[in-house]
């Protein structure tokens, strides 16, 4: 078991439902610590940069429109095997396929409006954390 950090985004569907606190509760109950957090709204340009890995996918345009459509909450999470632990807690990308009790199964409504994002590897996490936070904003 190794201590890791991962990036978490609470997406516009969840922020507009006013369930940020419920999602924070799930994160903390899973043993992960929120060591940085901010509320913001992405421009389409920043959203396209963040999700550039998906730029050739058919859903890219919808993804950028949705993620920039309203406020999001962005967090750095820390804990044992945080990348995998948070992805397990989120559930699969499509809320309809997600395991019972996961965040996406509980709060997500579609593959687009799936409530949360989490980094898919330790390497990606480092890049995604740097995208949103400066070193002095992360208090481990
Ligand atoms: P996320 O984990 O934020 O990473 C990329 C997002 O693209 C994903 O969650 C989904 O919300 C969204 N998306 C929309 N359609 C698809 C699809 N067919 N496959 C994967 N991701 C999709």
Notes on the structure:
The protein has 140 residues and is α+β, with helices and mostly antiparallel strands. It is built from seven helices and four strands. The structure holds adenosine-3',5'-cyclic-monophosphate. The site of adenosine-3',5'-cyclic-monophosphate has 8 residues, from loops.
Mean pLDDT: 98
Rg measurement, Å: 14 Å
**Helix-and-strand structural type:** alpha+beta
Q: Could you tell me the strand content as a percent range?
A: 15-25%
Largest sheet data: 4 strands, antiparallel
Characterize the overall form: globular
Low-confidence stretches: none
Compute the number of helices.
Answer: 7
Distance linking N and C termini? 18 Å
Order of helices and strands: EHHEHHEHHEH
Strand order of the largest sheet: 2-3-1-4
Ligand kinds:
adenosine-3',5'-cyclic-monophosphate
What is the number of beta strands? Answer: 4
Write a concise keyword list for the protein shown above.
about 140 residues; four-stranded antiparallel β-sheet; alpha+beta
Short description:
With 140 residues, the protein is α+β, with helices and mostly antiparallel strands. 39% of the residues lie in helices and 20% in strands. It has helices spanning 12-16, 20-29, 44-50, 60-67, 82-90, 103-107, 122-132, and strands at 3-10, 33-40, 72-80, 116-118.
